[in-house]
Design a protein that fits this description.
single chain, 342 residues, mainly alpha, 89% helix
């Protein structure tokens, strides 16, 4: 009977010690886990700090600052041995730090997009600058200079981390440059067409000169000399900014050459046909070119060649070949106008 109280006391002590030991063990595990997660969060925050500092990302800086504040609260909880709430807070701080990292990543992707756009636009600027001649005209120069200045502003936005306005402005510059390229193409097309007309007129002057030598008419000779002088003066003053003036002078000189031909040969039906056809082709040239229809443009060039042959044959007195080429030119012109929607 004396041993019973001792056993009872021993069981009671064990019953009291076991929960205390278990609680101490759980507390140790909670502390260990908190410390480990706290260190992990610190690593994420330090990584975010390295990315955000100096980046100019306002939203990223705000998220990083919030993460640091919450992590400080988590540390205070740990020091107070409130590991459960400390864990919740350090996890929250880690999430905020990860958000800051994500903001930086998105900003980097956007920055790459803007940088590629800026590089693309600047290559376009260089390409156009090399293709603009010194006498391209005030309008072309003004458009280019405006585009150049806006691109420089876009670069400044980019350097100041203002990516959205940088991207928007650079894209606007690209659109302006593409319109400028189309205008330059049109100008080059006009110049090519003008050069062809000048060459045709020059060849016609040579043929008419030979005809007038055989004709021996002084009035026709005077007209020819006037045309030759005007032709040389026009070539000396030729520039891109006065295309319309050159075209009107070419038309006038061509009419005077036809007058000289009529004086030597007498007015005839084929000469009138040539004059009407020449006028009709000059009237349709711009619309066919601007239509962008390749087949129409090809047919128009064929009509121009037939017209040149017709003039040559008419001057040579070969009325049959002249008529055939006039007819061929009329057919090609009619088809070209239809395809161009004229």
């Amino acid at each position: 009977m004396r041993k019973l109280p001792k056993i009872f006391i021993l069981v009671l002590l064990v019953g009291l010690l076991v929960p205390s030991l278990l609680n101490a063990q759980q507390a140790q595990q909670a502390r260990h886990r908190f410390e480990q997660e706290f260190r992990n969060t610190n690593e994420v925050i330090n990584h975010a700090r390295g990315l955000i500092t100096g980046s100019g990302l306002e939203r990223g800086s705000e998220m990083l600052k919030l993460a640091e504040q919450i992590q400080t609260q988590a540390r205070n909880m740990g020091m107070s041995r409130n590991f459960v709430n400390g864990l919740k807070l350090t996890f929250s701080a880690r999430d905020k730090a990860k958000s800051a990292i994500m903001i930086n990543r998105q900003a980097s992707e956007n920055e790459n997009l803007v940088r590629r756009q800026l590089e693309k636009t600047e290559k376009l600027l260089e390409r156009i600058r090399s293709s603009i001649s010194t006498d391209a005209g005030h309008r072309i120069e003004s458009l280019y200079n405006t585009a150049y200045n806006n691109q420089r502003r876009a670069r400044e936005f980019y350097y100041n981390h203002q990516l959205r306005p940088a991207l928007k402005l650079s894209r606007q510059v690209e659109n302006t440059l593409n319109r400028l390229i189309e205008r330059l193409k049109e100008m080059n097309g006009n110049l090519e067409r003008l050069r062809n007309r000048i060459n045709r007129l020059e060849n016609k002057i040579i043929r008419v000169e030979s005809m007038i030598e055989d004709c021996g008419n002084d009035r026709a000779g005077q007209i020819l000399n006037e045309v030759k002088n005007r032709f040389e003066n026009m070539k000396n003053r030729q520039n891109n900014r006065k295309l319309e003036g050159i075209e009107s002078r070419l038309r006038s000189m061509n009419q005077h050459l036809n007058s000289a031909i009529e004086i030597c040969q007498g007015t005839n039906f084929q000469t009138e046909q040539l004059n009407r056809l020449q006028f009709e082709m000059e009237k349709a040239a711009a619309s066919i070119r601007e239509s962008g229809n390749k087949q129409a443009q090809k047919l128009f060039k064929r009509a121009e060649k037939n017209l040149e042959k017709a003039e040559r044959f008419c001057l040579a007195g070969d009325s049959e070949a002249c008529a055939a080429n006039i007819k061929a030119a009329q057919i090609s012109l009619r088809k070209a106008k239809k395809l161009a929607g004229i």
